[in-house]
Amino acid sequence: MIRVTLYAVLGLLLMAVVGVWLSAGRRVGTRGAPGVPMVQDPVCATYLLKNRALMRRVSGVDYLFCSEVCADIFERKAASAGGTDS
Q1: CA atoms 43, 48, 49, 54: torsion sign
Q2: How far lies 24's CA from each of 13, 30, 31, 52, 81, in Å?
Q3: C-alpha–C-alpha distance, residues 73 and 77, integer Å
Q4: Of 1, 7, 40, 61, which residue is least crowded by CB atoms under 10 Å?
Q5: Residue 57 forms beta bridges with which residues?
């Protein structure tokens, strides 16, 4: 009887862990401060709060980045593809 109860408890714990693990993939990029939208860096695909993003104007379009490194990479690629307007 104790063995059956132990297996039942372990089974429930395993189901809970798997459920949390599976649902975590659906929430990527959706958590943040209430009322502050999340944005995705076009270079590294990192999600970050919009109010913490670095903005650069490239070819007349505003882009948001997670860091100076990603912004520089994006500007270099845009420059090699046809010019920039910083």
Answers
A1: negative
A2: 17, 10, 11, 23, 37
A3: 6
A4: 1
A5: 62
Taking the C-alpha atoms of residue 63 and residue 74, their distance in angstroms, rounded to an integer, is 9
Distances in Å between the alpha carbon of 40 and those of 67, 68, 75?
Answer: 12, 15, 16
| Type of residue at 14 | L
Comparing CA positions, the residue from 27, 25, 46, 29 lying closest to residue 37 is 29
| pLDDT tens digits for range 55-69 | 999 989 999 999 999
| The pLDDT of residue 81 | 84
pTM of the predicted model as reported, rounded to 2 decimal places:
0.56
